[in-house]
Every structure is written in C-alpha cells, then in structure tokens.
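stuck on whats below:

***
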Amino acid sequence: PRWRLIEDSARRWALCYGYQEIRIPLFELTALFARSIGAETDIVEKEMYTFPDRDGTSLTLRPEGTAGTVRAFIEHNRAADPLPQKYFYIGPMFRHERPQAGRLRQFHQFGVES
C-alpha cells in the first residue's frame, strides 16, 4: 500500500540522518498533555480523547508525539547519554475534531525530535 511506501521512505531518511526510532504508547496520562501543550489550549480542552482508567486515573489517546517522546527521554534517563540525541516516531494520533476534508479523528504522523 502507498502508506507503507511513505512510512518506509520517512524511516530510511531519518535513519540516514542519525535518528533512532522510538515507540511511544497510544495512551498517556492526561496530565502529560496538560503540562506540555498547556491546560488552556484547544487541544487539551476540546480535542483530546480522554478516559478514566479502572482506578480513576485519567488517560488520553495521544494527540501528538512530542510530549510522549520527551516523557520517555526523561523517564529512561536518556539525558545521561551523550548528546545530541535524535529520535523519530511514526504512528497514529487521535484528535476529537469535527471531521472535514483533510481532518480525520485518527491520522498518522511522522515526527522528529532532537
């Protein structure tokens, strides 16, 4: 399929320039996005798919990849590794937007962080 060709091309490009692939979870703690994107932004207030977990913890389907990448960097103490570090991700993101041409509630994103 065409999407696989696009993903493979993006992956090759990123690896060629020294980026490492990172896999981030589909669900993250809601507080992560409120802190990183801003609690008063449209994404946090209106566009996130947020659900309570069994224990009442608020979880959100990832609306973007930067926050999860930074969280993983910090949690896994990657700052102790030599810099610069370069990461890329490819995967589905979710936003509760009004469907219209070019805007879907689930979309795939390629991103790079360094």
Helices lie at 2-16, 30-38, 42-47, 66-75. The first strand starts at residue 20 and ends at 21.
